[in-house]
Amino acid sequence: xxxxxxxxxxxxxxxxxxxxxxxTKARVYAxxxxxxxxxxxxxxxxxxxxxxxxxxxxxLGTYFALDRRLGQIVAKTTEPMLGQMRLAWxxxxxxxxxxxxxxxxxxxxxxxxxxxxxxxxxxxxxDGWEIMLAEPPLRRGQAKSFAHGRAQPLAAMxxxxxxxxxxxxxAAGVRWALADAVVHLPEGEERSAFIKLxxxxxxxxxxxxxxxxxLAVLESLALRxxxxxxxxxxxxxxxxxxxxxxxxxxx
Length: 251
Hints:
Blueprint: H1 2-16, H2 22-38, H3 43-51, H4 54-76, H5 80-94, H6 106-114, H7 119-131, H8 140-156, H9 164-182, H10 189-199, H11 213-227, H12 238-249
């Protein structure tokens, strides 16, 4: 379905104005694709985008789209080796330059527009999702590695690797990654381990940078979810109040 929409958008951009140069057309196309991405976001992700600085919204939206794509690969995989092959394609293509990548995949095209120079963090995201192909229940170390990989791109949006800003954003990303995963896990040992790991986070001291206020919203909703035993992040009227408060004040 998304591929059909993507093809339609290309036709609209190509036919809209023959005077547009290729760079402008690529930019307009990327903006149209971001509209498609937004239609598939969870409610908490919509809020995160709304409270994120304008200059980072396309980057964050692309991250959500890639995260969703990788999660779908894992969810639909019945044979781990086949899932690993599909994830390996993403790992390999992200390691290439923009010019070397195939075009036509809406998520990859967006990555090439908004994540140039930060693809290493996205490869970490692929590595994180690959861990979920392991035989359950995951061990604590595996759960930590999954959350670490999923949080790497969010941390990369904050600043240089392992700077204070990076560390703070990474901690927030890890907590959200765990809470979001818990919602989809059945009751049992693995789910309990994810919840405990999310509540054990100790490196989340301080307020996130204003430009990443959306990530602060996700973290607060994640903490609320984990404390309630893994409820959906936007379940209950209190979720909107938490998001509003953190979106305005940062905590």
